[in-house]
Amino acid sequence: MSDEQREFAEVIRTSGDALLDIINDILDYSKIEAGKLELETIDFDLRMTLEEASDLIAIKAHEKDLEFINVLHHEVPSLLCGDPGRLRQILINLAGNSIKFTQKGEVGIHTTLDSEDATHAIVRISVVDTGIGIPKDRMDRLFKSFSQVDSSTTRKYGGTGLGLTISKQLTRKMGGEIGVESEEGKGSTFWFTAVFEKQPEGKEKKIVVPEDIKGKRFLIVDDNETNRYILREQLTLWDCRYEEVPGGNEALEKLKAAVVDKDPFEIAILDMQMPEMDGAELGKKIKQNPDLENTRLVLMSSMGQRGDAKQLKEIGFAAYLIKPVKQSQLYTCLTTIAGIQKGPDKKQSTPMVTRHSLAEDQKHKTRILLAEDNKINQKVALNILKKLGYSADTAVNGKEAVKALEMTPYNIVLMDCQMPGMDGYDATGVIRNPESNVLDHKVIIIAMTANAMKEDREKCLKSGMDDYLSKPVKPRALSDMLDKWLSEENSLKYELS
Q1: Strand pairing partners for 408?
Q2: Between the CA atoms of 68, 72, 74 and 75, what dihedral angle is there, to the nearest 10 degrees?
Q3: CB within 8 A of 343, min separation 6: which ones?
Q4: 360 lies in a domain?
């Protein structure tokens, strides 16, 4: 394809995406106006929902060279009951707006707890940007249908003006409020609240401190205070010792002083984009100093380029991650490099930890059970899994699935609902029964069924299954589903109490 053809194809793709967004907005608006829009009430993990949305938002932010930050404060309960799809829609609407009107600086998502009682939590999510801001005399137009701040906005940035209206209506249906604070020329903060039920006690996760990094000493190097806060929260959660500095020169002083005090930093986490001295240059100086060369280095960057990992490995970095970094990725990365033996001779032989290596390693370790009686469907599913990098064992009915789970600690079960002898619903009931002989009563179970009605999904969830895939199963849908559940399950950060 020539450069001109590629350019035309990109215009067609982006125009098609924009048109699809407009159509979806109009459909949602029509449902709201007709009183036909209903919210789901299902169990979900707030952290996972925010991280999934952040993956999409970060792509748009990085296309404009914007820093993107996702902060979930530790006091916010993660296991909630509500409509994660609509929550994600509001968040992507608000963050998309912020990115659209921000030319430099950053866009950040901050999730805090407004209030809670024994059964409910009111969550506040704020989207903060360093964009153009909004004049005070025009802020009243923001949440009105088909309205934008002024006509030049539509010409320059596009859109229907429906996104904020839909977000306002969805927020109301979730029992919350929505608002904005802004200063022209300095940026805006769009915020909303939503009321969620808490999942029953016993499902909430308790922290298991990883022995590989417990008590280890870390140095955080980043000029952005919010980024340092995110890392502080995680390292505190995992009982690590840490100090922080905003730049390279301060980092070198800290590292040298720690060696003199005979309490060296074992791992340093460096940001790439910093004034005066970037993370790569700082890494070179650390590795060139004989007293510091055993410090294991992690580089975090908002933008990755082809060839970066190779260059950083040659410098001596142990890991290279692209932001936003999921909690599970950070955990696996740090526990992996904490186990690497010290010594400069290890630098070339030890594989570098990257988001790709973490994903591949996760796939190789994942144990999947496919319960499906139809041989053709079974073959199709196994082929899709193979192409995605996974392998799976099979069972042809519910009884075989239960027996397999008594013998092997699987990470995930893909469960057909209609099978002879014992169907997927009954098999799930046996698996969830604490008196049964399966090794893990809380194993992730994803339903696979040709029935695609809302009541079918509800039946699956009520039977004890965790999620739902419609047949015929599509590769992208299965890949997204496995990413969603295994990223949390395989992190080994927690155990269920």
Answers
A1: none
A2: 140
A3: 294
A4: no
